Amino acid sequence: MLSEFSLIDRFFARRASGSTYPQRAVLGIGDDCALLAPPAGEMLAISTDMLVEGRHFFPDVDPKALGHKALAVNLSDLAAMGAKPQAFTLAFSLPKADADWLSAFSDGLFDLAERHGCELVGGDTTGGPLNLCITVFGSVPPQSALRRDAAQPGDDIWVSGTLGDARASLGVQRGEWSADANDAATFRRAMELPEPRVALGLALRGVARAALDISDGLAGDLMHILERSRVNATVDADALPRSDALRRLSTDIQRRCTIAGGDDYELCFTAPPSARAEVVAAGQQARLPVTRVGTITPLDAAGAVPAISWHDASGAPLTLTLQGFDHFHAE
Amino acid sequence: MLSEFSLIDRFFARRASGSTYPQRAVLGIGDDCALLAPPAGEMLAISTDMLVEGRHFFPDVDPKALGHKALAVNLSDLAAMGAKPQAFTLAFSLPKADADWLSAFSDGLFDLAERHGCELVGGDTTGGPLNLCITVFGSVPPQSALRRDAAQPGDDIWVSGTLGDARASLGVQRGEWSADANDAATFRRAMELPEPRVALGLALRGVARAALDISDGLAGDLMHILERSRVNATVDADALPRSDALRRLSTDIQRRCTIAGGDDYELCFTAPPSARAEVVAAGQQARLPVTRVGTITPLDAAGAVPAISWHDASGAPLTLTLQGFDHFHAE
C-alpha cells in the first residue's frame, strides 16, 4: 500500500509537471489551489462529470480505458461548447491503492490529456467505493461559445461521427443481442474509448448555432436544445449515421441504439442552411463525417412544450416510446 | 422518485438562478459548460475535494450539516490561498433520490454559498454510493496569493481559531473518551459545521507569507509548508489554541487532538515578526483569534528532509509519534 501523498506523486503529480506541453497554470498541484486564467478576452468553460463503478463502467473495466474515458467525457463537454482544453482537476475514491491499476489508469488519462494539451492542475484522493470526478477547464471567446439556447427555426440539425455503437456494446454484454467478434470489438471500443470531438467543436465556432454532446442518447439530449431554445424539431430516424457493424443488427435495434443509446459523445448541433458548405468544411478540417439529420421548427404555440417529430426515410411518422437515459428515473 | 433533471432543477438549478447575489457566470447551469472569468488582473484559484460516506462523514449525518461541510472544506482551500469565492460546481452520487434529504442538503449548501457570494454554476448527479465532489473557484491577484512555498526562516508560525475539537468529537463518538453533553455538542458542531476562514485569508493578503488550511492535522499539514518552502519549524505544543471544552480533557488527549486531529479547517500561516501587529489586526478584522505557535528555522543542511521540533511550554522537547491523517496509509 502506498500512502496517499506518495501515490499521488508517483502517478499524477510527477507526470503532470514533467509533461512537455506548455504549463498553463501559474500554480498547479501541491498547493491549496491551482491558479489559472483564460487568455485575454476569453472565458473559462467549466464542466464536471462523475463516473461510478457499476453505473458508468463495469468493475472489470480496463483501467487504461477508464482513465481515457473519465477525461474524454469531460473534454466532450468542452467540444460541445467550442472551447479549447486548458486544464483539469481529478478527484477519486478507490477501495485500495493498487499500483498496477493506478499506473494503467494514469497512462490512459495522460495519453489523452497530452494529445489535447490539457494540464492536470489539482486533485483529491480518498478511500471508498470507486468513483471518479473530473472538472475540466477550456477557453472560449464568450461570443463564439456554442450554447444550447441558440437554435432557430429553419436550422439544420447535424450529428457528427456515428451513433449507437456504445449502446450496442452494452446490449452484447447484457445478452440482449449478439454480434460477431469483430463487430463486438468495434462496439466495445466505442463504449470504452470515446474520442472527444474537440477539433470539430473548435471548427464550428462561428458556423454552428446551438450544440451539445450526446451522452444520454440523441432523443433525450436534443430535447435540451429544444427546451433552452424554445423550438421543435423533426428528425429522420433513418438518416442517423451508424457504423457498418451496427447496420448488421436489426432495424429495430439500430433505431434503439442510435436514438436512445447514450455514451455516444458525438456532437449534435444546429446551423442555418446557408452554412451547409461551412459545416461540411468544418467536418473535413476535423477529419470527421457530419450528417444532416433533421430541421428545427417553430413551437406549435408560444407556451407549448417542445417536441421532436420522428419520421423514416419515406417521410412516414414514427412513434417512439424510447427515452434517453435518466439516472434517477423510476424503474 | 424524481427523475434526474427535475431533481436538479427543483433543489439546485432554481435556487442557483434565483439567488440574490450577483451572478458571476455568463452561462451557468443548463449548458454543457459554465462560462466564468476572473476579474481583470486576477486569476481563478481552483480546488476540488471529494467527501465519501463512512470516511468523511457518518451515514446518519444531518444532511443540512453535510451540505454545509461539503462546500465549507472547499471554501477553506480558497481561504488558505487568500482567494475570494466566486463559484462552484457540485457532482454527487446518491443511492436514491430522497426529496427530504436533498432539500435539507441543498439548504445547508446554499446557506453557506450565499453568505460567501459563491454561485453554483454546474454539476452532475448520478446513482451510486453517497459521494460528494465539489470544485470551487475563487479570484486572487497572483502576486497576493498565499502559497505553501513562501515560508522563510525567522517567520512566526500562526494558527487561527482553535484546534482539535473535531477530533475530540470523533473520539466521543467512537468511545475513545467521554465528555459531558455540552462539551460533546461543542465538539460535534466543530466537526459538522466548520466555518471556512475566508475573511481571514483575504485580510492576510500582503501580510502572511505561506499559508494552508489544516484539514489532516497540524503535524501533517505544516509539513507541506516545510517541504515546499525547504525549511524546518519549531512548535510549542502547549501554545496550540484550544477550546475550553477540549481543555477539560486530559493533556494527552488535548495534544493528540490539536496536533494530529484533522478536520480543523483553521488556517496555519507564516509571517515575518515585523508583521505581528498586522497579523493581529487581520484577525480582528476577521473577528477570529490568531495565535503564534512557533517559528520557521533553516534546514539542517541543504538537502535535508524538513522536520518539526516540538516542545512544551517550558521549552522541553517532546517526541511525537502521532501522524496526520493519511487516507491510504497502511494500517
Automatic annotation (TrEMBL), chains A, B:
It holds the Pfam family AIRS. Mg(2+) 1 binds at T48, D49, D124. Mg(2+) 3 binds at D32, D77, D213. Mg(2+) 4 binds at D32, S47, D77. SUPFAM superfamilies: PurM C-terminal domain-like (SSF56042), PurM N-terminal domain-like (SSF55326). Substrate binds at H56, D263, F325. It comes from the Bacteria. Residues 30-140 form the PurM-like N-terminal domain. Gene3D superfamilies: PurM-like C-terminal domain, PurM-like, N-terminal domain. Mg(2+) 5 binds at D216. GO terms for biological process: thiamine biosynthetic process; thiamine diphosphate biosynthetic process. Mg(2+) 2 binds at D49, D77. One of its GO terms (molecular function) is magnesium ion binding. Residues 152-298 form the PurM-like C-terminal domain. NCBIfam families: thiL (TIGR01379). Reaction mechanism of ThiL seems to utilize a direct, inline transfer of the gamma-phosphate of ATP to TMP rather than a phosphorylated enzyme intermediate. PANTHER family: THIAMINE-MONOPHOSPHATE KINASE (PTHR30270). Belongs to the thiamine-monophosphate kinase family. Catalyzes the ATP-dependent phosphorylation of thiamine-monophosphate (TMP) to form thiamine-pyrophosphate (TPP), the active form of vitamin B1. This is Thiamine-monophosphate kinase.
